[in-house]
Design a protein that fits this description.
The structure is a homodimer. Chain A has about 350 residues and is α/β, with parallel strands linked by helices. In chain A, about 45% of the residues lie in helices and about 15% in strands. Chain A has 2 domains: about 60-160 and about 290-325, Rossmann fold (3-Layer(aba) Sandwich); about 160-290 and about 325-350, 3-Layer(aba) Sandwich (Rossmann fold), CATH 3.40.50. In chain A, strands 2-1-3-4-5-11 form a 6-stranded parallel β-sheet, covered by helices on one side. The interface of A and B includes residues 61 and 100 of A. Chain A binds a DNA duplex (16 and 16 nucleotides) through α2 and α4.
DNA sequence: CTGAAAGCGCTAACAC
DNA sequence: GTGTTAGCGCTTTCAG
């Protein structure tokens, strides 16, 4: 493996001069530059990024931290979109060091150990123990999620989940729904709470109140959907509509509803989330809240490049992305028969 | 950032001793080990992988090279599956450095510059100029594709495209098809040629011959599908069935056939490839050749770990993965009316 | 079992 | 414009 020293020796110049040529330092005589460049070609010299990084503290590498298993990340189409956005925005200016893992893993090690230039963090729980240390460290980092309502120190790009939820409520209330259940998502994710907040405020606008017994928190994507849906439907005066934290969850909820003998959407309306590629092809096609994951990733990456390029620390920048409701066939006007039945149940319970 | 030197100073031992503790070298007195470990905890010391890599030439990082744009990689479900397989098999023993890019990019730089411990390479063209240098370098690397029929120096894991194609032929011939067109895929990919070889040999088994005018090479996934399908259908005595290099290509071909006034599968049968998540949900659902991309990635990663762990150079290992035909609704018995029409055309041309 | 010295390949700071 | 010196944080000899 030819080193800078070898090039210097062959070209008959100092190592520093070679270094200057490699780094496009203008203070090199054209003749010298050319000679050095030729030797570099001939010897097929490539700078050792480890040595460079060790010497100057930069590695040309961005760490991508996703607090999910590889199975979830690559299994659910949304992350692929975000990663695609990141990759394109980075445009080969930074290589990507991917770090996946679920739970409270010490991802700060990515920085500590690999000395990445910056981090993009996705799906980070609010109570993540690394958070404070990370923000204090001054390492450029951008989140594609929010961490807490008042977190103003961090750079983030995040969809406006509350607004998405309010749009869902507008839609459902227009269809006559008043009892609405929420499979909110993981309790430790800010987005889950925003979703519930949006539902609550949306209902309030119509003089309705969210029955907190119809709100369930649970994991993303897999496993808990059926159980939670059944739990909610087992409450007194069960809801006529279910709002889910993602499309997979919605699919599971629909499955559970079928097992309970309900028809979707005739008996119960179900709303998915993310408008993933699943949504249009599922039967029934899912009404879902669309987020632009590609753009989310791209904006985060662009911001990271800015932060890394900046000489002075930049003030944090926070971007709220709009969400929009895509209406398909998993939601429908509330079933009169069931509504009456529910009303009777309430009367009975109330007596 | 606390360094090994700091730890050594505080613990009152030499740097080498700290190094031994960090690297689990057994030749350390238990008391010393414990003291050092405690100081490491207290000071929150993390080894600098750059420095370590510079000193010993190992980086705990695997380069993942995919010769496609990020758009293709994350847009087509198959790569996500492979990446998921890789990530899980690597099991955090190696970090993943992702390098995407289409064309003859100098991906050897990943090795040269980042000094990765090994490479997993996907979708590499046979005429890749880096190939020889890469194989000569002795860097552990595993391909999830073949490079040439006689390439025995490389480690690879690849589906048996020829066998997949033969299964397709069995299916199509059973349905009465004898004139079969192939949208083979990129000319520079070995898989494309294997696909055509399988078709040719498959037909031969039935005493049929592949009309080479009905074979077209083109890019993967996007763009060329419609044009190529139309080109093939414009040949004298056009085929009654089209075999495509991927499911997206099949979708495009079907689109083009509709534009030409053909019905699928009544007039022309179309076979997709990969059995991606697209296949079952497209209208008509695609008959497609299934490959287990997850397993392909997982096996490649496992092999890479072996190669890296090995002290002596290991003999290359080559794994051919089975493919299976999933029959859906885009293929059907050949249309008698058209068959007669084609026969007339042949008669006319022949006269 | 432990330590001292040298060096991995590069760049920063300062000469000239 | 160019060269010299020192050192980034670690591991590898090789001694003890």
């Amino acid at each position: 493996m030819t080193s800078l020293r070898d090039v210097a020796r062959v070209a008959g110049v100092s190592m520093k001069t070679v270094s200057r040529v490699v780094n496009n330092d203008p203070k090199v005589a054209p003749a010298t530059r050319q000679r050095v460049q030729q030797v570099i070609e001939e010897m097929n010299y490539r700078p050792n990024l480890l040595a460079r990084g060790l010497a100057n503290g930069k590695t040309s590498t961005a760490g991508i931290v996703i607090n999910l298993t590889a199975d979830d990340v690559f299994g659910y189409p949304l992350f692929s979109d975000s990663l695609r956005g990141i990759a394109e925005a980075l445009n080969n200016r930074l290589d990507m060091l991917l770090h996946l893992g679920h739970g409270k893993f010490p991802y700060l090690d990515l920085f500590h150990r690999h000395r990445v230039d910056g981090l993009i963090l996705m799906n980070i729980p609010m109570d993540d123990p690394n958070l404070r240390g990370l923000l204090d460290s001054g390492l450029p980092c951008v989140f594609t999620c929010r961490l807490a309502a008042d977190e103003t120190r961090a750079n983030w790009v995040d969809p406006d989940f509350a607004s998405g939820a309010e749009q869902v409520i507008d839609h459902l209330v227009a269809l006559g729904h008043t009892r609405i259940g929420v499979l909110a998502g993981p309790n430790h994710l800010f987005s889950a709470h925003e979703r519930v907040r949006g539902v609550r405020e949306g209902l309030k606008r119509y003089g309705l109140e969210l029955d907190e017994r119809l709100v369930c928190y649970g994991e993303l994507f897999t496993g808990s959907g059926r159980r939670l849906a059944k739990h909610i439907m087992a409450q007194p005066d069960p809801p006529t509509a279910l709002i889910c934290s993602d499309d997979l969850m919605a699919c599971e909820a629909i499955y559970a509803l079928h097992e309970l003998g309900y028809d979707v959407p005739d008996d119960v309306s179900v709303v998915g989330w993310d408008d993933s590629s699943l949504a249009p092809v599922f039967r029934p096609p899912l009404t879902s809240v669309r987020q632009d994951a590609y753009q989310k990733g791209a904006l985060a990456a662009k911001r990271l490049l800015q932060l890394i390029a900046a000489t002075d620390p930049e003030p944090p920048q926070q971007t709220l992305l709009p969400m929009s409701l895509i209406i398909r066939e998993s939601t429908a006007r509330v079933n009169q028969r069931r509504e009456n039945y529910s009303a009777q149940q309430v009367a009975k319970t109330g007596s």
